[in-house]
Amino acid sequence: MGGERIGEDELVAVIRKVLSGGGPGVVVGPGDDAAVVDPPRGASVLTTDLLVEGVHFDRALTSARDLGHKAVVVNVSDVAAMGGSPWYALVSLGLSEHDDPSWVVEMYGGMRAACDEYALSLVGGDLNRSSVSVISVSVVGEVAQGRAILRSGARPGDRIVVTGALGASSGGLLLARSGNAAMTSEWGRSLLEAHFRPVARVGEGQTLAQSGATAMMDVSDGLLLDLSRLCSESAGGARVALANVPVAAELLELREAVPCDPLELALSGGEDYELLATVPAGAVDGAREKLGERFGVALTDVGEITEYGFVGVDESGAERPLEPRGWDHLAG
Amino acid sequence: MGGERIGEDELVAVIRKVLSGGGPGVVVGPGDDAAVVDPPRGASVLTTDLLVEGVHFDRALTSARDLGHKAVVVNVSDVAAMGGSPWYALVSLGLSEHDDPSWVVEMYGGMRAACDEYALSLVGGDLNRSSVSVISVSVVGEVAQGRAILRSGARPGDRIVVTGALGASSGGLLLARSGNAAMTSEWGRSLLEAHFRPVARVGEGQTLAQSGATAMMDVSDGLLLDLSRLCSESAGGARVALANVPVAAELLELREAVPCDPLELALSGGEDYELLATVPAGAVDGAREKLGERFGVALTDVGEITEYGFVGVDESGAERPLEPRGWDHLAG
Questions:
Q1: Which residue in A15, A78, A103, B154 could disulfide with B33, CB within 3.0 to 4.6 Å?
Q2: Quick check: A54 contacting B, CB < 8 Å?
Q3: Residue A246 belongs to what domain range?
Q4: What is the CA radius of gyration of chain B?
């Protein structure tokens, strides 16, 4: 810690005040060797994600509050991608000497806000020193027995659908890094929001599951890379109608202020946390209607699952092989 | 990664081969957005721990295999300290450029070995680039409803007991850092083993719970610091009989080779992962007998819970205030 050296026990005491004392099903919350909770009624969904300074976030660009919020949301999104509901979160922090206590408490505040938003209880965690700031969040959720939607269930002929619009998160990061004055515009703020305060599609995931989705995942590393993984798990291919890919409208404005290729951002930018699913052809309209009614969220048909290959089709009908580029966690 | 640049998907494929395909209660293992498991029958015990290079481990001293093993064991120990059983583990890795693929696969091998040893299933995780190597493990376990042993249940008059012997882990670290030739001796190897391959007391924790333990935790940060936390949670004090503290016998040998104070290591060294519990005075003998019979593990009475204060008593009966020193996670 910086000038204001504070011990673990003191900081834990402050954090425990920020955290909820309990919540539905919480038997033992933060402060003991482990948390104790009532298990979800259905099957348990378990997921974990690590955010590392300089790789996943830049302290100069993100606020502690947004960072804490996002660290929870990316995990909630993984539960959503199974068709599940999040219940409990655990946090491990590695704090560098740059993290003063107020920064840590702010970050916990952001986590708490995200937990309140998605109705999770933050039940415990762990504080450590580290040479670089690290945030590890794990979430336990629930999905009805036998109802989890995996990546491996897509079948040739299934339509490929995606919620919302793509590319806004990576566009927001571009804009933030550019320092361009357009950050204060309405579309600029919307792009920044997409990057720093992403939304997890929990209800949408459950609705897609109920609508007969055969496979599902969240778009965290870019549509093409994530779709190639879904295809690989399902032992199939994909034909993507490039003109149908829902490019975030704000990117057309961004292009005027900061050089970028909106379609490329939508295809490979990553961190959108929209849901990518496959559904039988006859189920697309019903799913789209429900998502619109319940959540006001668009569902776009971007192509179909094939026996093999990974190709894009342009408006003229010409096909070209697609390269599954996107965020490689080990390249950064 | 170093010379042998490898992408995330390739490394994930290798790791999935190292991991078990399933295990009891595993519905969806590694490779999807989240794992899906049958929830434990009792209450769920949730815990997480982060190991950071340069803080919790030194790549020059520890093998990848030992490191992976220990990352799992420290979490299992937290579950043991509640009187629970571990079931499922999740892993997040932050890999630095020093971590070549064989190192990562070896580390997963160590995790797998620990999971086999304690009958957990390693159900998922996450790989990331990082400027420093980071290992985050979360464990989901089980404890019978209403039977978790917290830190807060100690009452004045309860005896303070500890399993096994203390100080061996920090003695092992001292020895490893010294480079002393005594590392190859039988006692030297035993100290190194205590540090690099710690044991979690799962059966012992359950036995202490059944024997009426009123409070329990694991000794991860040092007996005095951990006991002071237990006292603080229980709103009580402690009187510790210093001559009764079970100092690891190997430390008397270590002292001849490397300057150290065995009692100080036992009181404040940390990372022993023995269990510290409080039990009603009449229950000590029964608990000790069961631990001896079932596990061949000693249980030592080291003092009693008082109304307030935190004092040590020496053999002459003289009292002195104890300073709860130990491992401060934020000082390192």
A1: A78
A2: yes
A3: 159-321
A4: 20
